[in-house]
Design goal:
Elements: E1 2-5, H1 10-21, E2 26-30, E3 48-52, H2 58-67, E4 72-75, H3 86-107, E5 111-117, H4 142-161, E6 165-170, E7 172-174, H5 184-193, E8 208-209, E9 213-214, E10 216-218, H6 219-231, E11 239-242, E12 248-249, H7 250-260, E13 269-270, H8 286-292, H9 300-313
Parallel strand pairs: 1-2, 1-4, 2-3, 4-5, 5-6, 6-11, 7-10, 8-13
Antiparallel strand pairs: 9-12
Helix pairs in contact: 1-6, 2-3, 3-4, 5-7, 5-9, 7-9
């Protein structure tokens, strides 16, 4: 049984579904929300369980893990994009991390996999990014700061408490069940299916730069990578990049959308690159390929096509 914290989120849900498809059982926690996606319904109360938990309360984390006899944890806990306050964000995130690690120590769990992010490389001006690269102390975003801090604290705690911890540095993700609509391809695909021009009025100048690049990764590939790392019998490293193996520009993303939806338009797409956008921001996948045999199955064209096909047949 694998305890998935944040398993109702975009990446967490896709990971839970991948684990179920490979024969694992999962317990997914919720805090204040009360929803169960239709995709989980066929597995409910057989190999998929949903329980309520506040990650900042150790006794609740222990209780859920113990009752469901969880042998490992995958945590997608993350600072909110729009935080409550710096003090409260730090309290929730650091207390939650400590409680996850302490639960694993007390119950003698096999492994804790923590969702990190390609954002840890955010202050490095050019890729490819390797797991053994030194990371600057400076952090330009909240996610970059929190994820770096998470890795430092978690690995130190793990060494002292003899807990098996692995950090998963996750690329820029798109695909089924994505709901925040922040990334460009989701807006493009949703708008094209409605016969509309996507709205980017919340971006500076109301546009997006066609030369901006990201390690855009189809969520199915990511979920498979997480499953391979988390369920591996032994690992040679404690940090793994999981991405697409390519840096893809916003212009190239739109071309992929047009291949899947020929009538797609995007008047917000403008020439140029955002000054802070790294050149070739791709994560090197040599380590995860060698250790667990991961390689992405989708390029941007097949990934967008699969995403569009999902949207055609599923309300979202």
């Amino acid at each position: 049984m694998i305890l998935i914290i944040g398993g109702m989120g975009f990446i967490g849900l896709n990971t839970a579904l991948r684990l179920l498809d490979t024969g694992e059982s999962v317990v997914i926690t919720q805090h204040s929300a009360n929803r169960v996606p239709d995709a989980l319904t066929p597995h409910l109360n057989e190999r998929a369980f949903v329980d309520r938990m506040d990650v900042t309360k150790l006794y609740e984390v222990l209780d859920v893990a113990n009752r469901h006899k969880a042998d490992s944890i995958i945590s997608f806990a993350a600072p909110p994009a729009r935080g409550i306050s710096p003090q409260e964000d730090y309290r929730i995130y650091t207390a939650g991390l400590q409680n996850i690690l302490e639960t694993a120590r007390i119950l003698g769990m096999r492994r804790v996999s923590l969702a990190s992010s390609t954002s840890v490389y955010g202050s490095i001006p050019e890729g490819p990014f390797r797991e053994d690269m030194p990371l600057p102390v400076h952090s330009g975003t909240q996610v970059e700061a929190f994820k770096k801090g998470m890795e430092i604290h978690a690995f130190h705690y793990a060494a002292r408490a003899n807990v098996n911890v692995v950090s998963l540095r996750i690329g820029s993700i798109y695909g089924p069940y994505y709901y925040s609509m922040f990334n460009p391809m989701s807006r493009m695909c949703h708008a094209a299916l409605k016969g509309e021009d996507p709205d980017f009025s919340d971006r500076p100048g109301g546009g997006i730069n066609e030369d901006d690049e990201g390690d855009w990764t189809y969520v199915g590939d990511l979920a498979r990578g997480i499953q391979l790392v988390h369920t591996a019998g032994s690992l040679s490293h404690d940090t793994y990049n999981i991405g697409s193996g390519a840096a893809t520009s916003t212009k190239r993303v739109f071309e992929a959308v047009q291949k899947a939806l020929p009538d797609a338009v995007c008047s917000a797409l403008k020439p140029g690159r955002t000054p802070s956008n790294a050149h070739n921001p791709v994560m090197d996948l040599s380590r995860i390929g060698e250790d667990v045999g991961y390689a992405p199955e989708h390029d941007i064209d097949s990934g967008i096509a699969a995403y569009v096909e999902h949207l055609r047949h599923n309300a979202q």
